[in-house]
Amino acid sequence: DTIPASNIKRQLDQTIELPLNKYRRVTSAEAIQLRGRDHAINEADAQLIGTIQNGIRSDLIASVATTTAAAKNGKTLQAAMANLWASLTGKFEGYDGFDTDAANPFVFFVNPLDVADYLGTATVTTQNAAGITYLKDFLGLGTAITSSKVKAGTIFGTAAMNLNLAYIPANGSDLASTFGLTSDATGFVGITHNINTNNATCDTLVMSGVKIFPEITDGVVKAEIKATA
């Protein structure tokens, strides 16, 4: 007998555009003479880069905060996260490639005040990467990213492999080599300087292109810390 053909249909879920954000600031010779190069240029540049990095962290939270999918609420952080974990486990059970054989494949986004309320006086070890504070294996459920940008009392969760990061490399790309960019610590922000002798100023040029998005748009779930009905 002829084996019937299996048909797999692919549909466009979303179109993502990777923006190139450009920033420029000008430092006059007078400012350098008055405050010194380190204060007038380097420290001011660091503040600008810090603002850009903060925007990237805001985009990370925004990539999950728009979800409408909700798990059962919990009276405590532990209960709410457990309900969220259960919802995510069921949601990704049928998806291949999102667990990476990890014991805890999920990532949660929590307000630090909610974490503090739960921990009380307990000792906890936090880690930091690219300015993002996180706790590994939090409550035995997954990685918890803490941010004040998350509304207190609300928790978001998804599979770690569901979050995609697209960015223009600040080192090694055509853009970086063409403009002579030097990367910041994250690799997401490139910076260069140019001396203008015609008006005795130093131009600081900063470029960054980062987009964070969930591959499965309905794979992000939220839960709230409050008494259940």
Describe this structure in words.
The protein has 229 residues and is of the alpha+beta class. The protein has two domains: 21-57 and 169-208, no CATH class; 70-162 and 217-224, hypothetical protein PF0899 fold (2-Layer Sandwich), CATH 3.30.2320. It is 28% helix and 29% strand. The chain has a six-stranded mixed β-sheet, sandwiched between helices. Strands 1-10-9-8 form a four-stranded antiparallel β-sheet. A hairpin with a 5-residue loop joins β8 (182-183) and β9 (189-196). α1 (29-35) crosses α2 (37-65). The longest helix has 29 residues, at 37-65. The protein is flat. The model has no long low-confidence stretch (mean pLDDT 90).
The CATH architecture classification of the largest domain is 2-Layer Sandwich
Mean pLDDT: 90
What name does CATH use for the topology of the largest domain? hypothetical protein PF0899 fold
- Which percent bin holds the helix content? 25-40%
The total domain count is 2
Structural class based on helices, strands and sheet pairing: alpha+beta
The tally of strands reads: 12
CATH class of the largest domain: Alpha Beta
Order of helices and strands: EHHHEHEEEEEHEEEEE
What is the percentage of strand-forming residues?
25-35%
Spans with pLDDT under 50 lasting ≥5 residues? none
Distance between the termini: 56 Å
Total of helices: 5
Compute the CA-based radius of gyration.
22 Å
Sequence of strands across the biggest β-sheet: 3-4-5-2-6-12
Shape designation: flat
Write a short abstract of this structure.
The chain is α+β, with helices and mostly antiparallel strands and 229 residues long. The chain has 2 domains: 21-57 and 169-208, no CATH class; 70-162 and 217-224, hypothetical protein PF0899 fold, CATH 3.30.2320.
